[in-house]
Amino acid sequence: MIASAVGHTPAARPVAGPGDLGRVVLTRSGALSLPAPGRWDIDPVHSRIAASAFHLGITKADGRLRRFTGTIEMGTDLASTEVRAAVEPASVDTDDDVRDQHLRSADFLDVAAHPHIAFASTRITARSADRWTMTGDLVLKGVRNTVDLDVVHHGAGPDLWGGERAGFSATTQLSRDDFDIRWNQSVIAGILAVGRTLRIEIDIEAVRAS
């Protein structure tokens, strides 16, 4: 007997006659293997870059970077795989126009002088089949620093238009001080208006290039 479902790897079991087959589990196609070698383009419509920081030390302020591009050059293994991305800091969106204008100013992202944020991976290593550590160079506000991202590979499979897609998520934490984003305002002693640490959350859907 062969059990199958779209987007999953078929499972086969020998059948000698009527009987209970028990529980049959199908694995998502590509969940435990790398996407096919070649170029994969990030689909910005189905991807997300978000950042959050503590506000007044008691709650988080969230925002998104709406415009970005990127490619994944998949190798035959992670050691030969490269990731590159470019983000427009002017696309920052926190659902507050006044705050967004301040974030675009020289106090924070200084988008007039630095219209792009760039990332290029330098090393990707596997912690398990679907959990990786990606190290790369991040250039933000003209300052280059090395960052590590915790990456989860969610698998790959066919889409609705005859193509192939792969899904990933990644998280990291950045210190604003490392990128010369030092503006702050003390409310009372020891309490800052904006936290110094940014939590970055990324969801990526990539399309295999034809």
TrEMBL record:
This is Polyisoprenoid-binding protein YceI. InterPro entries: Lipid/polyisoprenoid-bd_YceI, TTHA0802/YceI-like_sf. Residues 1-20 are annotated as: Disordered. It holds the Pfam family YceI. Residues 39-207 form the Lipid/polyisoprenoid-binding YceI-like domain. SUPFAM superfamilies: YceI-like. It comes from Actinomycetospora cinnamomea. Belongs to the UPF0312 family. Coiled coil: none annotated.
